[in-house]
Each structure stands twice: as C-alpha cells, then as structure tokens.
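User:
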Amino acid sequence: MASLPEHLDLHLIRILYLLLCEKNVSRVALKLNQPQPSISASLRKLRELTGDPLLVRGARGMVPTQHGESLLRPAKRILDETERLFVKKLPFEPQGAARIFRIAAPDYLDSQFLPNLVAGIRRDSPRSRVMIHSLGPEVDYIRLLSDGNLDLVIANWDEPPAHLHLSKLFEDPIFCTMHADSAYARRTASDEMTVDDYLSLPHVAPSPMLQGNQGVIDAFLEKHNMRRNVMVESAYFGLIPYMLTQTDLVLTTGRQFMRFYEKTLPLKSFKVPIKFPPMRFYQLWHERVHQAPEHRWLREQVSTAAKSLVFQ
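Assistant: Predicted structure:
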C-alpha cells in the first residue's frame, strides 16, 4: 500500500464512500455535481492510495472488492465525525437533559434566591443535578471556572475580574442591624445614626469570601480613610443574625438579606450614615462556556430567579 499523503483530502473520502455505496462513477458524479472524468481520476487516486481496485466489474455492473467493502464503515464514520465537528450547535433541551450544573455562591444571598433557582432547574430539567459550592478565601474560583469545575460564580464584587463574562443580577442597599433591645437601639428613638456612632459600635463582619478581597464594606471605608470597630469575624454568615440577638454587635449587610430574619428575630435596622454603594450581585462565567447552549440556559435560570426577588 502506498504511504498516506501528508494532507488527506476529506472530499476524497466522501468520493470513496459514495463510490462504494453507488457502485457507479456516473451516479457519483451526478450526486456531487462534478464531471465524470474528475470522479474517475479520484477513483484512480484511491486505488493508488489503498493498493486495491476497490470496484471491479461484476455480473450486473461494478461491485466492491472485499477490501473495498471493509472501507465502507470507516469512511462513513470519518464523515459523520467530521460533520459533528462543524455542525451548528443544537439547542439545549432541558426536559430530557441530564447535566450537572456547578454553581458557587455565598450564603449571604437573599434567602429565597438559591431555593428559587434550584426549584426552577428541578422543574424544567428534572434529570439534571445541581451542585452548590461555597466560596471562601481558599477557593480559587477563577481557576475552577477556567478548568470547567465550576459553571458559574455568584457573588458581589467592587471590581469583577475583567477577563470573565458577567451579568448583573440585582442590587441590595446597605443597612446595619442590631438587637432591638441593645443599649444603642434603646437609646436611639429614631432610625438616624451618626458616622461616629457607626464607626465606634462593636461590629461583626463576615470573613472574606474571595481571594485578596477584604469585603466591600471595609474596602469602601479604607478608601475613604475610615475604619469601623470590628470585634467579631465569622465565616458562618447565616449564624450572624442569631449572634445579634445575644450581644451588642452590629451587622452591616444588604437590606434584602436581613428581611428574612427580621420576621422572626428581635432586630432593629438603621440606615447607615455613610453613603455605601449598594451591594451589586453578579454571575460570572468563563469564555470556554460562553456559547454553550446549556450554559446560556443556566444563566437565564439565574437571571429569572434574581428578577423574582421582591425589593421594597
């Protein structure tokens, strides 16, 4: 058998497949809209490459040789696989899909946001799995997104990484909250609080959630040459509201997050006397999945869950 050329023409494989199927040079020429001498020349080249006649005369026309018949399935497989490489991406069909969606998010989101998201995915893609991961300073979410170990990261950043795709989900105004029976809450008849009061009160702050990020509250204060009196730092954000009920601590966070706890806990909220920008929550994803139909569907689910939140 002759050695393979450095660049094997895919069109030649298509001609090989059609010749083995049609067993007729003229019909193949008609199918490919090419002159018959061109197809005959291709057949000669194929015979040279394979070292086999491929088609020989039979009782009722041309018939494949034994070697020719053995090439039919490989040629078809090559053509099918090549078509898959360049075929237009099919739309994602969530009802029949069995995908694993990996989402990283902090626990200080609105209490209904992630439950609503999970409910939407379960309803529309019941065979898919959802894996929700925590965020922390030890989590290299940029690498995890790049490697495909995370699909999305949901959190709030002052300056999200520029090389990642993002879409804004919602904003949450900043309030501070304390035990309604704390000394300061009892002393202050109105919801007005001074800057000095705010900075000097004992604060509880969540541990940094992202690498190299001190948190939006303290970063903003540092930028304006201010520092609050942080007495407790906690990695368990969901437990902080309960800490407030037994201490004189003050929590600064988004208004939306605290609404859930204010319904059941003896808490009092104050407008912060410093003009903090609202907490801006985004979803971030990597370029590698930007065009994937199933990922676009997931991002739509996240956006829908965010839009369902009620802000008052």
